Amino acid sequence: MTLRQYAAIVTAIVAWGALTLQCGLIIERMTSEGATALQAIWRFVGFFTILTNLLVAIVSSALVLRPIHPLASAPMRLAALTAILMVGIVYSVALRAIWSPTGLQAIVDSLLHDVTPVLFLLTWIALPHGDLRWRDMTPAILVPLAYFAYAMTRGAFDGWYAYWFLDPSQQSIPALAISIAILIAAFALVATLAIWADRWLAGRRT
């Protein structure tokens, strides 16, 4: 087994494990407050962090089980890398200061926002490079766009938004639009840097 396979296995195990623990914690907390398990799961899948860690877990698993599958392709790896790095960046910049988990939740929080991004970055670096093209940025940009549409739609129905910077009740529509535009620009920047890194790594190995 190669180093890249070991890296993908570790990343997949950590991501799946963190997701399982976080789902259990949300169910336990919300059911103790009177919600149903189904409502807890619906809340669970409302977070970009959760959906992105799920994407990383799926891509990492595909790299181990079926490396030629489209889920393990260079564009999908780029999309997953961009999204999980943004999870770590946005959490550190906008959310870490207002969220102080304790106990098992603190451990899971660190796994989802800190450990998984680093592990997947290392996995991505270990993989073959040189196949990315500028058009491959499209999936990386579509991921946040799809989430914004999803978050706004579900928020309009149940009034709950996962993040304050996407909540229309906490900021004006122009401010909300600016927040989304800044985030999209940040995703594009991270994807651009990743494509440059892909080409540089390909040149180094050649």
For the report, how would you describe the main beta sheet?
Answer: none
Q: What percent strand?
A: under 5%
* Backbone structural class: mainly alpha
Tell me the number of helical segments per DSSP (H or I, 4 or more residues long).
Answer: 7
Can you give the helix content as a percent range? over 70%
Mean pLDDT: 94
Dominant shape = globular
Reading the helices and strands in chain order gives HHHHHHH
What is the CA-CA span between the terminal residues? 22 Å
Q: What is the total tally of β strands?
A: 0
- Ranges where pLDDT stays below 50 over 5 or more residues in a row are none
Describe the structure.
The chain is 76% helix and 0% strand. It has seven helices and no strands. It has helices at residues 3-32, 37-44, 48-65, 74-95, 103-126, 137-158, 173-205. Helix 1 (3-32) packs antiparallel against helix 5 and helix 3 packs across helix 5 (103-126). It is globular and about 55 Å long. The mean pLDDT is 94.
Could you provide a short overview of the structure?
By secondary structure, the protein is mainly α. It has helices at 3-32, 37-44, 48-65, 74-95, 103-126, 137-158, 173-205.
Topology, please?
Elements: H1 3-32, H2 37-44, H3 48-65, H4 74-95, H5 103-126, H6 137-158, H7 173-205
Helix pairs in contact: 1-2, 1-3, 1-5, 3-4, 3-5, 4-5, 4-6, 4-7, 6-7
